[in-house]
Amino acid sequence: MVAVVYSVLWIISSFKLVHWRLWYTYYPTALYAAIGNLLYEVICDDYPLWQMEPNGLPNQTMPEILLIVIGMPLSTLVFLSHFPEQRFIKQLLYIIGFVLLFLVMEWISVHYGSITYHNGWNLYWSILFDLIMFPLLRIHYRNPLLCLCLSAVFVAFLSITFQLTLDKME
């Protein structure tokens, strides 16, 4: 049920915090976030690093769909809508704020059994992931091709680190 609560909170937050008049400029980056999550779910189905658990929902697919369709796109829209344009320090603090938000959300999810870790993944890896994900979202918004190249490097790093080889992929 944690996934349902988070989805409702992202919907409410997006109504209050997203600059909807600019939604179309954020849309490609929201798709990048959703598709990235979808690819993880498909590729790592047989060798997960983290896994969304049903936690009161009918099956494991439901929380994954909520994250892919609601959580990632709307959190991306909220993130981009208020990203500071100037001053590196403000941008850094903004990113750290979102990393902390996601850290708290993930800790709650783990605590209530909505997320489980596998194959060496843990909360510290999630923090590193978020510290890279949020700058990549901003980079994608400004320069999608550069972001895709950097994303490929990060995916290669994670694949090597966690021994995610082709025979472990679905």
From TrEMBL:
Keywords on record: Membrane, Transmembrane, Transmembrane helix
Positions of transmembrane segments: 22-40, 60-80, 92-110, 122-139, 146-166
Organism, scientific name: Paenibacillus rigui
InterPro entries (alphabetical): CBO0543-like (IPR048147)
UniProt name for this protein: Uncharacterized protein
Record bears the keyword Membrane: yes
Highest taxon listed in the record's lineage: Bacteria
